[in-house]
Amino acid sequence: MTVPEVDQSAAAEAAPAVGGVLEGVQVSCWFGARKVLEGVDIKMDAGVVTALIGPSGCGKSTFLRTLNRMHELVPIATLAGSVLLDGHDIYGAGLRLTEVRRRIGMVFQKPNPFPAMTIADNVAAGLRLTGRKVRDRDELIETSLRRAGLWNEVRNRLGAPAGGLSGGQQQRLCIARSLAVSPDVLLMDEPCSALDPTSTRRIEETILELKDQVTIVIVTHNMQQAQRVSQHCAFFLAAEDEPGRVVEQGPTEQIFSDPHDPRTADYVNGRFG
Amino acid sequence: MTMPETKVLPNPRAPEGRQPASAPAAGPRGKVPPRRRPRAWRWTDLAEIAGALGASAALTWMIFGRLLPFRVMPIAYVLLAYVLFLPIYWFVIRDGQGATAAKDRLVTVLIATGALFAFAPIVFVVGYVVKRGAEVLRPNFFTETMQIVGPLSKATEGGALHSIIGTLEQLALATAIAVPLGLLTAVYLSEIQGPLARPVRLVADAMTALPSIVAGLFIFSIVIKPHIWLQSGIVGSLALAILMLPTVTIAAEQVLHVVPGGLREAALALGAPYWRSVLMVVLPTARAGLSTAVILGMARVVGETAPVLMTTGGTTVMNVNPFSGHQDNLPLFVFTQIRSSQENQVDRAWAGALVLLAVVLLLFVLARIVGSASPGRRRLRVPRRRASRTTSDGGNPS
Ligand SMILES: Nc1ncnc2c1ncn2[C@@H]1O[C@H](COP(=O)(O)OP(=O)(O)OP(=O)(O)O)[C@@H](O)[C@H]1O
Ligand SMILES: [Mg+2]
Q1: Are B181 and B245 in contact (CB under 8 A)?
Q2: Which domains does chain B have, with CATH numbers?
Q3: Closest chain B residue to A96 measured between Cα atoms?
Q4: Mutation probe of ligand 1 site: the residue of A28, A35, A36, A225 with most atoms within 8 A of C-beta
Q5: In what residue span(s) does the ABC transmembrane type-1 domain sit (chain B) (predicted)?
Q6: DSSP A194-245
Q7: Is the ipTM of this complex over 0.90?
Q8: Whole-model pTM?
Q9: Atom of ligand 1 nearest to the CA of A190
Q10: A6 touching B, CB under 8 A?
């Protein structure tokens, strides 16, 4: 614990001033022979929260999972196109798979803290899992929990098992866990769908506080949430027996108030099958 | 919710004005229907069973005692009483509650009988071992060996300390060999899912049915016959490990399957290499279940006689070194004693059997406790570790 070899930890401890720029270029995805996503071009800028919306099954999660190479965990999954992180292809030879996933964190729909670990160990799990050391573990835990807006609720029971937290707290713990490895981008797949309005509000506040430090991409079915937290918005749609496509994207305000495509207007106004 | 339906319904709508006196708001409060437990046994049920049993017993006595001219074995009484009980009980219930209820009760009785038949042998075996064993089990059984005990000594003389030590050492060694291999195989089957997973699982499944004597023969012919190692505890452990391996592997694989996939994804999404996510997330999450798998494996082999018969040699003197010289163990102790023609030695074997039974029972109970108390264990253990780390971290700020 007192190992002083901490050359790279300085970077790990200090929160990056600004997140990374993530760009999907002509991304298409297949599960086996079935194409579920076609030609998606989205630029997710630093300092901007990007919302992905669309009806169920149109490929939002699939797209999100291509952004940190989780897509390939499904054995039959394939893809085309490229994903650029600050201009470098994350599927290229230059970047290691584990490094890509560390720099592009992910928060899942269902809160999934590690049940065999304490709250503090959960936050610091990313360090152990990536084999890194930091000078001051306790401080990293505190900063990460503060950034996730959970510190005040758990400061007195850091040694308690993570399973004892409420659903909303668990989800914020997962956010803290992702932040502890200092990612440049944070992907969130319906992070509030299992939560009550108060926890949802709390996580939305967290997103807004984080957005200047980390690039955030969020999938949501909640139109109000998309309007509240995002500045950029992409609408996905899959016609019957066809792969999903991005029908329209642009500033959130414009998508919701003055969409160009009638299908977008139907969807954001709730007039959709 | 549904129970007071009939009493509550008239209140708002009062279709018939059935109970004009209790119409106001205070009405339903006054006469709360009695709480019922729909599935509980009632006295009438017991009375029906008792009546039917009494009738069938009486009928049996009449048939065997008065009508038949010869005597029969007592078991025939029980059998006939049971056979007569079924139709009598059926008629009783059908009269009171209809044919459907009667059928239901009859099937219940049959199923309960089946369960009893499955349970009875265990009770008999355990009961018999306890009875015979307790007769000769004395404290010196745990402190003495058979070194100076002659064939004509009393059954309460001598002891099995050398066998108990042997059993513990051989079990520990077998565990040390089989558990790492079994866990690695389970990880391969469930986490890596390599191309060999299917055949390996098939072989492991088949190996659970491996006759234990074959394991003993195998080790005998490849270790002892070519003089690689002479008969000793460790060679017996090898044979036991072969038997333990498939049990541990299959149990551990099933445990690993239950670990939610979301946890693996969460670990990978943090940038973990696959091996670290398995080592630090999957295995610790499944810790309780894996412990159970290990204990089940131990319980599987601790009572095996055939594999150690050819491999450990067996002895009556104390040998604490499992790596050289003949060693005894409990199943072997029982085996050698019970084969004797002397009554006293046969009696002594039952004491050994009782101790062995206690060991197996202990292992199974341990497996249940470890397997079921996982949240409590976590609450007990992890915070303490964490607490000590926090204090030590706080203690040296350097
Ligand atoms: N592991 C898989 N194997 C095969 N097909 C899959 C797999 N995962 C997703 N799909 C298919 O890919 C398509 C897109 O799924 P995806 O999960 O990306 O939808 P989504 O937009 O996230 O939907 P939701 O809003 O319900 O989460 C769906 O038609 C789905 O059936
Ligand atoms: Mg989804």
Answers
A1: yes
A2: 43-134 (no CATH), 161-372 (1.10.3720.10)
A3: B271
A4: A36
A5: 164-367
A6: TS-HHHHHHHHHHHHHHTTTSEEEEE-S-HHHHHHH-SEEEEEEE-TTS-EE
A7: no
A8: 0.75
A9: 27
A10: no
